[in-house]
Amino acid sequence: GGFNPNCKLWSHQGFNYSVDLYDADARIAIEVEKSERKNVSDDLLKFQKGYRTKKDGRPKIEFGCLVVPMNYLGRHNLYQHSLTKLDFMKGVLFIDDVAVIGYHDPRPD
């Protein structure tokens, strides 16, 4: 997302934040986590900010998707953490829906 200007949804406001993938017609933003670092809260805040940022009278982000690895051996299961964090924040997230998709990281542990 960092290199694609279409993913920099707030550049017109002077912010350099971006999402990894963005479909402007469908108003869907996708964030792909590639490490065990827990950036889920940051991702959810981007979705929220996108919902509050309008273009042509509609939110820039109406749907979010988190894609997270499921196979880390550390004590934190990022997939389960994402589901728990989303469940916790649902009451303050004004966005139509957020999907969480788990993937198997093929790199050796």
Description:
Helices cover 23% and strands 24% of the residues. It has 109 residues and is an alpha/beta fold. The protein has one domain (19-103). Strand 5, helix 2 and strand 6 (97-103) form a beta-alpha-beta unit. The longest helix is centred in the middle third of the chain and has 13 residues, at 40-52. 23% of the residues are buried. The model has no long low-confidence stretch (mean pLDDT 87). It holds the Pfam family Halo_RE.
Contiguous low-pLDDT stretches (5 residues minimum) are: none
Please tell me what the overall shape is: globular
Average pLDDT taken over every residue: 87
Strand content: 15-25%
Pfam family, one: Halo_RE
InterPro entries: RE_put_halobact (IPR058672)
Topology:
Layout: E1 21-23, E2 28-32, H1 40-52, E3 54-55, E4 58-59, E5 63-69, H2 78-89, E6 97-103
Parallel strand pairs: 2-5, 5-6
Antiparallel strand pairs: 1-2, 3-4
Provide a short characterization of the protein structure.
It is built from two helices and six strands. Helix content is 23%, strand content 24%.
